[in-house]
Amino acid sequence: MEKLLQLLILFSIIHLNLNLKAQEYIDTQELQKNVNAEINGKPAKDFFNRNVMFPLDKNMNPKEGKVVLSFIIDKTGQLDSISIIKYPNDFAVNEVLKGFVKSKELWTSAKSDNVSVKRKYLAIFNFYIGSDSNIAKERATKLSNKGKYEKALDLANKAIVKDEYDISLYKLRENIYRNLGKIELAEFDLKKIKVLENELLIDVSLTMFGIRREI
C-alpha cells in the first residue's frame, strides 16, 4: 500500500510538470497568434502617416516637438480613453487629435487566438525641423561598431533623454552595455524594449526641412 501511494505521488508530480510545460507552450503559441488593432485592415501607423499634418501656428510657422498619448481599442473596435501624456504645444497636439478623430470609425480590435480583446496602446508623434535624433543614433552606432563603447554609450544616453520611446535606441544601448560587461543594465534595457514592443502601436516622425528654428 505504501509503495502504491508513493507511485501515485510520483505520477502526480510528473503529471503536474507536464501540465506546466504544456501551459508554457500554449502561452507562447497564444503570444504568436496575437494581432494588434488595425485601421482598415492595415497597420495604424500607415493611416497616421497620411493623415497627420506638420503643426503650424496662426502665422503658419511650423512647431516642432513630441506628442505622446495612450488610448484603448475595445473588443468592438471602438476608440476610447485617449490620454495625453506629453505634448510640446497646442498646435502639435491638435494635429494629432484631428488624426484620431478621422480614425474613430475605422478601427478593428486586437485579437488573441482569433478572439477580439481590449488593448491599451501608446502612440508617439515626432515633429522635427531640419534634423532628428537619428544623427546621434548613427554616431553612437558607428562608435559601437568600432569598439568605442564608452563614447557610444554617452551618445546613446543623450539620445534616449531626447527620445525615451525609441526602441532602436534601447536595443543599441543594450548591446553597448553587454559589450561593456554591464549585464544588469543590459537586462533592464531588454525589459524596457519588451514593454515598448508590446504597448507601442503608432510611431510617426515628420520632418520639415529648410525652415529656420526659432531661438
Q: What is the fold-level CATH name, i.e. the topology?
A: Serine Threonine Protein Phosphatase 5, Tetratricopeptide repeat
CATH class descriptor name: Mainly Alpha
Helix content: 40-55%
Strand tally is: 8
Number of DSSP helical runs: 7
The largest sheet has its strands arranged as: 3-2-7-8
Strand-and-helix sequence, N→C? HEHEEHEEEEHHHHE
Could you say what the CATH architecture is? Alpha Horseshoe
Largest sheet, in brief, is:
4 strands, mixed
Rounded mean pLDDT score: 82
Low-confidence stretches: 1-32, 210-215
Structural class: alpha+beta
Q: Kindly, what is the distance between the CA atoms of the first and last residues, rounded to a whole number of angstroms?
A: 88 Å
CATH superfamily name? Tetratricopeptide repeat domain
Plain-language structure description:
- The protein has 215 residues and is α+β, with helices and mostly antiparallel strands.
- The protein has one domain (38-208): Serine Threonine Protein Phosphatase 5, Tetratricopeptide repeat (Alpha Horseshoe).
- It contains seven helices and eight strands.
- The strands form three sheets. The protein has a four-stranded mixed beta sheet with strand order 3-2-7-8. Strands 1-4 form a two-stranded antiparallel ribbon.
- Strand 5 (110-112) and strand 6 form a beta hairpin.
- Helix 4 (134-145) packs antiparallel against helix 5 and helix 5 runs antiparallel to helix 6.
- Residues 1-32 and 210-215 have low confidence and may be disordered.
